[in-house]
Amino acid sequence: MSKIIGIDLGTTNSCVSVMEGNSPVVITNSEGKRTTPSIIAFLEGGETKVGDPAKRQAVTNPNKTIFSIKRFMGRKFSEVTEELKNVPYKIIKGENDTPRVSIGNKLYSPQEISAIILQKMKKTAEDYIGNEVKKAVITVPAYFNDAQRQATKEAGEIAGLNVERIINEPTAAALAYGLDKNHNNNKIVVYDLGGGTFDISILELGEGVFEVLSTSGDTHLGGDDFDKVIIDWLVKEFKKEQGVDLRNDSMAHQRLKEAAEKAKIELSSSSKTEINLPYITANASGPKHLVKTLTRANFEKLSDHLMKRSLDPCKKALEAANLIDKKIDEVILVGGSTRIPKIQEQVEKFFKKTPSKGVNPDEVVSIGAAIQGGVLSGDVKDVLLLDVTPLSLGIETLGGVFTKLIDSNTTIPTKRSEIFSTAADNQSAVTIRVGQGERSMFNDNKEIGRFDLIDIAPAPRGVPQIEVTFDIDANGILNVSAKDKSTGKEQSIRIQASSGLSKKEIERMKREAQENAEKDKKLKEEIEKLNSADSMIFQTEKQLKEYGNKISEETKKKIELNLKNLKEARNSKNISEIDNYINIMNNILSTSAQELYNTKKDEKKEKDSEKKSEKNKNVQDVDFEEVK
Known about the structure:
Blueprint: E1 4-8, E2 13-20, E3 23-26, E4 36-37, E5 40-42, E6 48-50, H1 52-56, E7 65-66, H2 81-84, E8 90-93, E9 99-103, E10 106-108, H3 110-129, E11 135-140, H4 146-158, E12 162-168, H5 169-178, E13 186-193, E14 198-206, E15 209-218, H6 223-242, H7 250-266, E16 272-283, E17 286-295, H8 296-302, H9 304-309, H10 311-320, E18 330-334, H11 341-351, H12 364-377, E19 384-388, E20 393-397, E21 401-406, E22 411-412, E23 414-420, E24 430-436, E25 446-453, E26 466-472, E27 478-484, E28 490-494, H13 503-547, H14 553-571, H15 575-617
Parallel strand pairs: 1-11, 11-12, 13-18, 15-19
Antiparallel strand pairs: 1-2, 2-3, 2-4, 5-6, 5-7, 8-9, 9-10, 13-14, 14-15, 16-17, 19-22, 20-21, 20-24, 23-26, 24-25, 26-27, 27-28
Helix pairs in contact: 3-4, 5-12, 6-7, 13-14, 13-15, 14-15
């Protein structure tokens, strides 16, 4: 069976792992790093860069460098107004109220952008394994709703992957932590504070069974928010000192973002850090420089409200697992933001347990995803994962009430049915509105789908029996059906358009992603050929300069003619001609090398002969008599 890779598709960084025998391996990317920044840059000429190469050019190309796209996945445009203020790139309203990234004259869905990152992860794995990779387990925040999970699955499809399973990030972390340990029904807390989302999951581990007891979280809390408080502070201080507002300058904003992230990281190991941004902007009075010192104490004060925001979901998770005031055996920290000392201190105080330092917070999620891939492919034995649905699911009933069919923290996969009836006499059709959330009124929750059940037999209100069934698969993705029990008429919906993309759109995006991958490959090959031509031209000119007088005139003329042809082919970017002239040049240079070797050989012979002759000149013939 082919390998199933594990991908942590993160807000800030992504990571890919695979099982090698009984052990998971984190795969190093083409830049030699184990994690890849979730950043994509669109360059002139249609080229795209992903990861560190994209990050390096972000300051000079802020409007076409996309980061934190995960915060827009599976969400409506009307839901992301706050996020729009924090990114320099342009997002507009697309079909079905979906957010679309505008690059030049093309619009990209968040799924398409995420697919570019996933393609990079896929290629990284293929380079390591040596074969094509088609299957993956992809992680999502535990508190992602149905639309966000569906959007993640679609991103995988667009990238050319069969998504075998969507797995919650904290659950993946627990899998990685507990795989090689013996547990006796231990209660494990996974506190996951990443770049854009926060999750808290409580699991029970025992004899190969990983059972999620509860999960909670905040999909609008992460490292980006901690960066933002530093950015806001810098902008405020700069305006106070210089009278200039940096918010409207996209290049300055990108520099501020990079500086804020760097300062946050440095403050995890230092008590203060200097933020120095020369020439951040300019006005009529000349260039302006930003130089500020940020202390850890001030950073903790600025971000105190964010740190405290994570505690309410922690309390809810403990309550849902019936573990208030009960002993927790282990606390695992996941996500780069958990390196903040105050976060670690807060977690220890809340759970009354020192967090474990036994896992790498940046890699543990992808390792867990790879283990789940191993379970699905049969490579990993004796591991059973029991996950839960993070939010309640239900339908709208009379008066706009949200009637739950499946409660939050129910183990999945699961199936529930309930009987409903009509609200009016002789009602021949009903609209089933499906929602997800915890509020008592339907409109206060998220609508994730709707469908109609028609041709209901005429009857007084309350008489028809309509059976509504909710069926959640192991990915946490929902199927809903409604059946009129008297007529047998049935209608069902797989909540798959909740992400805002139709099947037709996904297929188009898959084709375009494939075409772009081919285009990028071709572009890369073209650049490599041009580089080869430049190298050949440089080396040939150097050799002509050094050894031109030591090869035959005929060979020299051939080299000069071919060099001229190669330069012309290079300037016109004619790849086939470049290949041809490089091959010809290699043959000519091989001949000239032989000539050079022969010349040197002849010179050596001549020198040796001269030396011998010189030696003989100094030798005198004399008579001698042998004495006995």
